[in-house]
Amino acid sequence: MKTKRQKENIPHESSAAKKSKTSKKNDDVNLITQLDNIYLVKHSCVIMDFWNICISIDPKSPTEAFNSLNSLKLVGPFRYLNDFYSKSKENKNNNYLCVDRFSTDLPEMQTFAIYKGGRFCFWRDLPNEEPNLIINISNNSPNFPTFAIAGNGDPLSALTFLARLKKQKFENIFKKIENQSEIMSKWKIYQQKKFLEELRKNRKEITVGEPLHGLGIKVEIVGDCGYRPVTENTKKLRNDLIDFATTKDETHKAKLKQQLLQIYTYVTIANDEMDFGMGLEFGHNLFISNYECFDAMTKSVLEVTYKLLKREVFAKILKEQWENGRRINENKKVI
C-alpha cells in the first residue's frame, strides 16, 4: 500500500539532508547571537535568510550581490557576517559597532546598506526588539535628514523600495535562487503601494510627538505622564538651531542660546515629572541637526533620557559613537 507521500510523488528527504538543514539552522542561530552581542541590539532571523540569498547570488562577494541596483553594498551587520563567511583576519580588530555608523545615525538606527545617493537603516524603538522597520536616508541632507519608511524588517523590502525609486528592474537576479518562488511572492507584496501606506499608518498609531526626522517617538504613556511637546512650532525650532549654528551675529546667537537653554531647562523639569518623551524628542532633534556645536548638549540630553526610559544600551551606543569620533568615517562611507 502506497503512502500519501508516494501517491503525491513527493521526494523523500534523506536523514543526511535533514541533518544538514538542522546544522545550518543552528549555525544561523549562533550567528544571530553573535550579532546581538557585537551590536548590543536584537537581530531577526530574517537577516540570515537574506544573507543566505546573497551568498547564493554571489558566493565570492555576497555584500555586493545587489551591486547592479544603484551600486548597493551591504554593510553593518552584513560586514560582520561577510568577515565570518570569508574567514577574514584583516578586519578582526574592526569596531563593528561604529565602523558603519553615519553622523546622523541615532542609536535607534543601524545602517545595513549604502548605495549611490543614500543608505538603508534598521530602526528599533527599543534595543531588545527585533527591527520591524527600515528607513531610507538620502545623502543630500547632512543636516536634518528626513527618515523615509522604506520597508519592514526584511532587507528585501528595502531593495524593492530602491528598485521602485530608481525605476530599475532586476528581479531576474533571483533566478539563481533555490526558493525563487517564495522570494518573488514577498517581492510582489513589497511592491504594492498599500504595503508602505500600512507601515506609515501603523507607525503613526504607535508614536507621539513631531521630531524633525518625521518618524515620531515611541514612549509609554500612563495617564498624563510620558510625553509633553518640545515646542508648538517645530519649524521655528529647526530654524533656530540652523541660525545658532551658522550665524555670525553674536548678539543674535546669544539670544538663541538663551532660548535653547530654556528648552533644556524644560526638559529637566519634564524628566522630574516623568515626561521622558520630551527629552527624547529634543535629543533626536539636536542629534539630526548634525551641527558640532550641539554635540555636548545632544549627548547630555540623550544619555539621561535613555537611562530614564531604561534604554541603557542606546546610551552605551551613543557613548561609543562619541568616543570613536562621531564624524570620523563620514567621507569614506558616502558612495
From TrEMBL:
Residue ranges of the region described as Disordered: 1-23
Pfam families registered for this protein in UniProt: HPF1
An individual GO BP term: DNA damage response
GO MF entries: histone binding; poly-ADP-D-ribose binding
The keyword Cell membrane is assigned to this record: no
Localisation: Chromosome; Nucleus
Keywords: Chromosome, Nucleus
Signal sequence, start to end: none
GO cellular-component term (any): chromosome
Cited InterPro entries: HPF1
Basic and acidic residues bias spans: 1-11
Family: Belongs to the HPF1 family.
Name of the featured protein: Uncharacterized protein
